[in-house]
Amino acid sequence: MAITQTTASPIGVFDSGVGGLSVFAHLTQQLPNENYIYLADTLNVPYGSRQSDDIRELTVQAVDFLVKQGCKLVVIACNTASAYGLQAVRERFADLPIVGLVPALKPAVFTTHTKQVAVLATPATLHGYLLNDIIDEFAKPNGVSVHKYSVASLVPWVEAGMPSEHQAVLELEQLLTEIQQKNVDELVLGCTHFPFFKPYLAEKWQSLFVHSSLHMIDSGQAIARRVASLLAMRNLENSKENNDSERMALQFFSTANPLGTKQVATRLLNQFNRDILIDFYQV
Q: Residue 168 in contact with residue 207, Cβ under 8 Å?
């Protein structure tokens, strides 16, 4: 499929829900002059418990939508969709630069002091080849143990706006207790929804385990650097500078529950320092 790309064309960001906004935040910091389109597949969220063929097809459909919106580059801001759909969309849209996510295990392997690392992700991501290739190539040769965890309540918790009364709150405390007992000092947040509760985890850890430290890492910053590099290589950076008085604009598309999605997305985006003007649409 031939794709026409210009410097003013938008960057497309896709996730199963609002979690990919954590990656979008890093993108806007690294690339503030770009135009952005975000697609949240709220009709089918979460992806983590779905079959691989289903995930692959949903990912292809999402990227196809962003291509039709004229995107010059697409970020699959979903570890699960990347694990099962990245190869398929790269084959189908060969002319389009597509950036996928993999949990940030590699830097955790090289920074751990205890040789004990935990990855918190969806079941599909934990079983996907992208993560397990890194375990085989980097963790095992360096004698690092990788403990895998999946908590089904976490994605729905973030999608609901992280209310204080929720099953996820108790399950996160149980998770922290278990990884502390295993002497884990690096926690990889392997889902784009998870960085939104990173401050909560840090505060909870400090209250529970005053004399031990836990470093948490996600892929957002590395993804933003990769996108900037690809745009530079293809001479596709948007050179038009945003006026300081203007608000950054984002076109936000969701496949279901537009009102609820708008409320949660707005609340999450308010965590960012930059003022963003969002136009919401339902696909």
A: no
